[in-house]
Amino acid sequence: MNIKIILDPVISLGSLGLIFGAGLAYASQKFAVEVDPKITAIRDALPGANCGACGYPGCDGFAEAVFDEKAPANGCPVGGEGTANTVAEIMGVEVDTGVKQVAKVICNGNSEKCKPKFEYNGINDCVAASMINGGDKSCNYSCLGMGTCVRACPFDAIDIVDGRIAKIDPEKCTACGICVEVCPKNVIDMVPYGQDVVIACNNKETGREVRQKCEVGCIGCRICVKSCPYEAIEFENNLAFINYEKCTQCYVCVEKCPTGAIEGNLENKKTEN
Length: 273
Known about the structure:
By secondary structure, the protein is of the alpha+beta class. It folds into three domains: about 35-90, 3-methyladenine DNA Glycosylase II, Chain A, domain 3; about 100-190, Alpha-Beta Plaits (2-Layer Sandwich), CATH 3.30.70.20; about 195-273, Alpha-Beta Plaits (2-Layer Sandwich), CATH 3.30.70.20. It is about 35% helix and about 10% strand. It has helices at about 5-30, 35-45, 60-65, 80-90, 125-130, 150, 180, 205-215, 225, 250-255, 265-270, and strands at about 100-105, 160, 165-170, 190, 200, 235, 240, 260-265. Strands 1-4 form a two-stranded antiparallel ribbon. A two-stranded antiparallel ribbon has the order 2-3. A two-stranded antiparallel sheet has the order 5-8. Helix 2 (about 35-45) crosses helix 3 and helix 2 (about 35-45) packs antiparallel against helix 4.
């Protein structure tokens, strides 16, 4: 076998590789786009989740937006107060971090308390199920509990508990808001961290209609509105809702609610009040 026949192509290809490599290296230096050190510093201060909860395409996009003053220093919900303060220091601005928020499933209508509408045998996904007459639970405002939010959460903060209801761990939740966006029933909302007293119902139908569908729904009796000593509960569209800025978590509404639609651990009242 003529070795020259083998070596010549190898040498030629190797030479071309070196030439092209040198050309690319030169071009990368010649046409390199300089990045401001502040952008790099901001990027390094971010948690690196790349979840898009800030409204920008990943942490790199958010860092550039902050540098260009198109996004606030506290615009990363995942990083929280610590990240906001670091980014603000880099940019030389002040920032109001506010109260930490966490996601909360505003529904307790599990399969035992919320009557079924029909038997669903389709894809185990809330979006798919909701396309069939709003889902198999009789209340059209209920959590379908098929785990769409669980699969979407990048922080493993959501579980489906008995009775097909999603529950969010506030200690793991970073308030990225992804679960809020993917829920087809709009039953996930943001509440202040540590807010134990929550009206866990979204049903805006009349009390009579609610009673026919769910045992733990808000029936619009307004007992909570009348009994709250701090005027923290308001009523609109057949549904009570809490003004968290006024709420002191005295648990009076939890005790008074006839259907248990207001969630709150009364054990906390014994230790706090």
